[in-house]
């Protein structure tokens, strides 16, 4: 691949990929609304507000693929999400269509299905049950991706990301954790695949407790290899027992499902 | 029911219900951005732009239920949909939550699943495959409805409406037509039901050719009774043979699936 | 059929069949622990405690089929159910095996699945979710029937009966009502069928609101024809609005699901 | 439709359609290896051995559609089936491809699934379980039809025909009977449909006892209207009780499933 | 966990857990109708007849969890099962409810589904097909567990145990064997889980030949690690060829499915 | 096993098994229409044209099992397939029935389902979608196998073989490759199983990219262990990028799906 664009490159996930994808494409074009530091070798750094359509169309020029992480990644006021996630993601897809980009990795989220109980095993056919306005924006993004594939042949793999950090931070993440290494190999698997159409999958390492099933996406050939088990003792020492009547324990979305309406 | 709000009351569907629901609630509150004429007996007429949140919160006050038809109901520029459908529908749900409204009928659309082929029989578990940006806004609306039920106990029946006109207008509508009479009885069935949670169903009369299955919503007890068959001879005389290689014939969304990107 | 045994013949359902099955078999053998009055023409009346195995083995002699309605049909103390429903039903099956009876209609109950929500459409594959100890005895009876078919070739149709009365008595029964006429035609269809194996089906008339699906049992050819709709106006006048947060409204089992532990 | 070819026109089904489709196409081209009498108005009569490829290619010229009934329709020696059904059906499809025929109705048979039990409800996704070599030829025909659609865009509706006679002839046919009138309306529905791809459905009237489900083909809009019930009393008088241990009663294929290897 | 009760502690499974769960809870309370020897450190030994309700209510006091292995674990006379399994298990659940016990591991059995063929892969949704009266008592126990969770919030994991012995004893056990080590880790996984609701799973090690699928219970995070393969050579040497027409080979329940009615 | 017959023994697969199954049966009887060289120790070599029924009946005498690889294994003219695959396979099954052979491994092919897209995960219930006339002959063979099991108790495992060569030869084979070692262990697992009925499974090694799922056949206990990954670098160096609009890339059947009608 010649040029791969990463939006949201200044964020947590963006930093992981900026480092992890070095050498994967000839050039990594990095974009964010925040500061990303200097461009390193084989990097292009482009500050860009994704809600500015003209700027996004420029940004996407000459790119072969896009890893779309940009936008707000926590619960937020609807009006902020309207700009960053609804409009921003539309602009990215429209720019991809106009520039002939072949494939996008869309950073969807487990919060698109966060109101399912922990005792359920979900696959890509699970009913959408967002646990937050943020989760609603991810349902929207997946629908938009489906549309751009069906009508304009822009392929997407929508990855419902669990919790991608160097280490799991609480008991829930023992189930939802995806290691940075597994995330990096996922991105490579997605862009290496011969064809993907629009595929929905879950971004999670093979932890001991499993809520999500990626069998339907086995054609992609992703083989994650890490597990949260190494961190269990520490986490369990740090956090008291979970209360099975707490919505944050009952529902897959955890705290997102438990909290009330976002107040600015 | 004491007061039922109808948004989009000046539109095609709104007019059908304004007439058809006379006497169903003590008061029909009618709202639109366009002119709705004078209020009749047991009517309240409130001009309102759904993208104005404060206005919508006022509009919803004292209502027991909402038939949310408002917004753009054809393919349109994304920026227009952003205001009318994304923001407008959010405002309606947020107003419902703040005002304690129990149940909403959300006018979703067959265009949320319009990229399925005509040869498929869909039910509520069918994969979302929107055929237009308009269809994407309906996917979003259903996700929002799911969220407001799961978290705030606001019930919704999302009705993927086929084609609701006095008569079917073309060959495709022989399959997608819902008679105004069946639409009216559907609204009554929805608000008469003891509980609905968030239910997705299809708004279509029992025509001869069937693409959609409502068995899962049989608890609602809707018994539509009309059929497009009475209009078949006329329609077939008026319209030439369908070309089975035309996307408008292949896909359930018809012309919406066949047309390209919306250009203002 | 020469001789058809009805257990529980003095009960509500038993009386309906005693009258309705006149002439269907050469002889109706009627059994109950309570008084059943005099034997009419082509009737045999045998008082019998179903928990007395030897008596039951005698009772079943020379019968070609059994309609097993006997036992306790409301929530009760476990110790009473142990005798009447657990032991009683075993005795009936064991007597059937020893006497070579070919087929049994087992009066199961919707309370075997009463903790499913009203918004679900159930078929024979629905998870068992009993709403009462009574419901648990029906789950047991279905399992026993399965066993006697698989191992001893005694066929059973287990009918999860809704509410079989001359008229529906409350709002819930608008959905669960089976008319006596439909019940009678169901029994005939069951014993007329060439083979049944062990089949689970729902005993309900084609009412407007539908919770249960019998498609899998379409081979039996039962065509029920009544509807609770004729009684709706009266029922709705008599009963106030249903509260959708009341367990008796949320769950299919109604009051059985809502009540607590049975206290003698 | 200008010219519709019927193969096997001298057989039972062929005669029903020769009469019933008068006026449906401008010209009915009738073909058989047996004598078909004189051509009537708007008829062309062509004697043809379907195992003669060149002859079949000629036969199909200028046809818009084909109703392929030709071949052996009972159990037979494999070597005879090899010519009549394997080779014959291939020749018809190859001729259709070469002549640009758009759609074929392939007379498949319930004997393609005849080893399913009567107590099962089958749809188009049911496992193939042929009950005879004849049934195996129908599985083959459906596979060939799938291939010609996927690769060459020749559409087929494969109809697993039950028992199409003026009246049901035995107890099994009370379930499998398709009235000639319903068969005729089925053929019209198939050729009237805008698109069909390769669709598998069951050819049966809405009898009381139902083994087969056509919901997935509801897009075709076939509305059969007859029932075997009118003939039940006569049939039941004529035929003794069915033995539920007889393979001819256990399996949907009836006598085909019960008989052993065909001996010439 | 402070105090974990094990019923049936004198049996084969009970002994495995008495040893294997040392140190898992502060105190193991051990109960059986048979002699269990002296209490070791951190053990309480309580002789108890599970059919004595008052005794069971006492037994359960101050326990946080229950591993319910007690009762008859082979085919037996119904009257014995009535006391030990039907009444005994009810008493345990009722005692759990009255004492506020949070979670129970119920020792269900593969004999609840033993009349499925070996060639089928079952999960928790498989139809119940008990192969014995013993198996029927396990179906009952699962239904009771479902009821106590839905109504009284007592959680259960019902484990359909295969064959838990130090080594597999015959050819069938090459598929059904669960090692003691895997059984112990299963119990820990069940009581460590944050929530379980009522979950049905299979107790079997990852042997080469697999009949049962636990994917739906992946949230529990059980990772069994043993295999019967180490014992294959010995077993195959010891046991002659299996006859595929023998019910003990055809059905998953093995000898239970093959034997006739239990005669005392 | 005393005597195992391998048809098609001179072909690629036959050679692998001739070598790999040495010692598995007392005698390997090898058959082909082509030269197979001299019989080695414990081998019988029988030249035989499978379209000659009498010869095949002789060939099968005294065999306990058959590995049926014989026939044409590439796309070919229908008339050639008619003899080699349709007639040849029938002769093998009929000979097995007449000689009381218990089990057959039928070499089906991925080309029986080759018109499914690469992005789908198929199991044995996947719709048949042959990609070639060759693929159609495999659909036929599976149907014939089903028939011979249901009626004559001749068991078959139909293996839809991917690509069995010492090494994968192109990019597609990175997904479809089955190593010779895994093929050999599959054959042993099939003939070692206590019962198989008619089972359909996929012959493929556990490669990184997965299109096929054998969970339903887990009872057979096959544990393949190789992967194409070792060959990836070489293959990717040798072959240019795949074009996702090329039918050979879109469809699982690869080149078979992409090529047109076979012209002799």
Description:
- Six copies of one chain form a homohexamer.
- In chain A, 55% of the residues are buried.
- Chain A has helices spanning 12-20, 53-60, 78-99, 133-152, 173-176, 180-192, 232-238, 247-250, 255-258, and strands spanning 3-7, 27-32, 43-47, 65-68, 103-109, 155-161, 163-164, 177-178, 198-203.
- The radius of gyration of chain A is 18 Å and the shape is globular.
- The first copy, chain A, is 34% helix and 17% strand.
- Chain A has one domain (3-258): Rossmann fold.
- With 264 residues, chain A is an alpha/beta fold.
- In chain A, strand 5 (103-109), helix 4 and strand 6 (155-161) form a beta-alpha-beta unit.
- Chain A has a seven-stranded parallel β-sheet, sandwiched between helices. In chain A, strands 7-8 form a two-stranded parallel ribbon.
- In chain A, helix 3 (78-99) packs parallel to helix 4 (133-152).
- At the A-B interface, helix 3 and helix 4 of A face helix 3 and helix 4 of B.
The gist of it:
The structure is a homohexamer of 264-residue chains. Chain A contains 9 helices and 9 strands. Chain A has 264 residues and is of the alpha/beta class.
Q: Which two chains form the greatest contact, residue counts included?
A: A-B, 32 and 32 residues
Helix segment tally of chain A: 9
Helix amount of chain A:
25-40%
Topology order of chain A in helix (H) and strand (E) letters: EHEEHEHEHEEHEHEHHH
The CATH class of chain A, by name, is Alpha Beta
Name the overall outline of chain A.
Answer: globular
Number of domains of chain A: 1
Q: Which architecture name of chain A does CATH use?
A: 3-Layer(aba) Sandwich
Placed side by side, the strands forming the largest sheet of chain A appear as 3-2-1-4-5-6-9
Strand content of chain A: 15-25%
**Assembly of the depicted chains:** homohexamer
Q: For the report, how would you describe the main beta sheet of chain A?
A: 7 strands, parallel
CATH superfamily of chain A: NAD(P)-binding Rossmann-like Domain
Q: Whole-number average pLDDT of chain A?
A: 97
Please state the CA-atom Rg of chain A, rounded to the nearest Å: 18 Å
């Amino acid at each position: 691949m010649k040029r791969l664009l990463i939006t949201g490159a200044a964020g947590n996930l963006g930093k992981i990929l900026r480092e992890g994808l070095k050498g994967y494409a000839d050039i990594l074009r990095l974009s964010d609304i925040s500061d990303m530091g200097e461009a390193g070798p084989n990097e292009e750094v482009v500050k860009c507000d994704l809600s500015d359509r003209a700027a996004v169309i420029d940004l996407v020029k000459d790119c072969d693929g896009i890893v779309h992480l940009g936008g707000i990644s926590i619960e937020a006021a609807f009006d902020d999400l309207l700009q960053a996630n609804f409009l921003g993601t539309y602009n990215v897809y429209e720019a991809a269509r106009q520039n002939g980009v072949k494939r996008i990795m869309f950073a969807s989220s487990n919060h698109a299905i966060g109101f399912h109980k922990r005792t359920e095993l979900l696959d890509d056919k699970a009913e959408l049950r967002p646990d937050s306005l943020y989760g609603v924006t991810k349902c929207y993004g997946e629908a938009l991706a489906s549309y751009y594939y069906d009508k304009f042949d822009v392929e997407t793999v929508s990855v419902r990301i669990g919790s991608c950090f160097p280490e799991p931070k609480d008991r829930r993440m023992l189930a939802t954790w995806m290691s940075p290494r597994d995330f990096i190999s996922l991105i490579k698997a997605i862009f290496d695949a011969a064809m993907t159409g629009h595929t929905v999958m879950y971004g999670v390492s093979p932890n001991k407790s499993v809520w999500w099933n990626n069998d339907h996406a086995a054609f992609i050939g992703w083989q994650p290899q890490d597990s949260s088990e190494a961190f269990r003792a520490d986490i369990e020492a740090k956090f008291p027992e979970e209360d099975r009547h707490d919505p944050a324990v009952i529902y897959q979305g955890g705290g997102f499902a438990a909290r009330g309406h976002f107040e600015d």
